[in-house]
Design brief:
Two copies of one chain form a homodimer. By secondary structure, chain A is an alpha+beta fold. Chain A is 60% helix and 15% strand. The first copy, chain A, contains five helices and three strands. The first copy, chain A, has a three-stranded antiparallel sheet. Chain A binds a DNA duplex (30 and 30 nucleotides) through helix 4.
Chain lengths: 98, 98
DNA sequence: TGCACATATGAAATAATATTCATATGTTTG
DNA sequence: CAAACATATGAATATTATTTCATATGTGCA
């Protein structure tokens, strides 16, 4: 069910999140982490065919915003999707006929 | 139910929409149009306390992207929310505890 | 310890977006 | 028609985000 109002206070928060995931590379990362549970930076780079440094910047950014979390495992750092709710949003959008 | 995969083709589309609504002013506009069915540019300006020209730019932008539609009524131009699905997305986001 | 690998970081360059301001366009009404 | 109102538009500017590149940091291993 869809609630009628959007509380002004929440608007900024929502905009914040939407803006964060509304980017091809970041959405790509989220897409991968939606299926794989956890992935190293390198794996993400390879699969998306995007430069290491750039991926790293985006990962850091999303981690900072609470969307991802990370843990070290040996030489690698594994990233995980923390804010699962983004999946619901993306899924919903995917079903829309735009 | 949440589908597992995000088809690559759709990613760009989704990013496109998310990016569009992921902005305070635009989200504000959508918030208003979620309750009011249709509003004139001036009403929107007043309620959001944002300058006419700026609102107009954003309205044009969102109309162009298929999120809003407009019709003239006398001196005014009334805007309506066309892509209702954005409400579902926003609603979903609003319920997340970020 | 030193080398190779994995990731992060920061500054500079570039690109994309948003905002402002002045003005144009279209509409109603006296 | 002219004046007043509502909205749109476009160029200039400001702001923010993204990308790139060079390099730093941290880890495991010979």
């Amino acid at each position: 069910m869809i609630s009628t109002g959007i509380e002004t206070e929440k608007i900024e928060q929502v905009a914040f999140i939407l803006k964060t995931i509304g980017h091809p590379v970041r959405l790509g990362i989220i897409g991968l982490l939606a299926k794989e549970v956890e992935l190293s930076v390198n794996e993400i780079c390879q699969r998306l065919d995007v430069e290491q440094s750039l991926i790293s910047h985006h990962l850091t950014n999303m981690k900072l915003k609470g969307i991802l979390s990370s843990k070290r495992e040996g030489k690698n750092i594994l990233y995980t999707l923390k804010l699962k709710e983004v999946l619901t949003v993306i899924d919903c959008m995917s079903k829309c006929n735009l």
